[in-house]
Design goal:
Helix 2 crosses helix 6. The model has no long low-confidence stretch (mean pLDDT 89). The protein has 164 residues and is an all-alpha fold. It contains 6 helices and no strands. The chain is globular, with a radius of gyration of 16 Å.
């Protein structure tokens, strides 16, 4: 339940506050960054499930076609979650690299599925001016977010050891 509330807060921030913090003409995608960190920590099935719910929330709040974001985020969460088994979770760069690759993959999948349902996006411009800059932005946020998560986890463990 907590991750759904975090996603709802991220969605509200994306729609209201983040447009003021654009870099290279794009805003960060907090839902994708949160999903990537969660899937990297919890695995494929839980990542896919959270991706579906995050995408459905986004579809209900912002989108024209219900299910388009749900499907792309579900696939993203599942695939990132597969990396849990073979990437070192102690490495801060792992979620940043995953965020970069997953943002590009999710964006291209969205373009493909959108084209199938009738959206006519300019492919080259969409990839070069939206998806790639957003991938860099999300990778930076994933690096910071995962660093904060690891620092908070280490602090909590130290606090428990000191209290016992």
């Amino acid at each position: 339940m907590g991750m759904l509330l975090l996603g709802a807060a991220g969605l509200v921030l994306q729609a209201t506050v983040l447009p003021a913090f654009k870099m290279a003409g794009v805003k960060a995608d907090l839902l994708t960054v949160t999903l990537i960190i969660f899937a990297f920590l919890k695995g494929a099935s839980r990542g896919g499930m959270l991706g579906f719910f995050y995408g459905l929330m986004e579809d209900l709040f912002l989108a024209k076609f219900i299910g388009l974001n749900a499907l792309t985020r579900m696939v993203t969460g599942y695939l990132v979650g597969l990396c849990k088994e073979w990437l070192n979770q102690e490495n801060l760069l792992a979620p940043a690299l995953l965020a970069f690759a997953a943002t590009i993959g999710q964006g291209i999948l969205f373009l493909l599925l959108g084209h199938a349902v009738g959206f006519k996006y300019p492919w080259t411009a969409g990839i070069l001016t939206v998806i790639v800059p957003m991938a860099f932005y999300n990778a930076g946020l994933a690096l910071v977010g995962y660093g904060l998560y690891q620092g908070g986890t280490a602090w909590g463990i130290g606090k428990r050891k000191a209290g016992s």
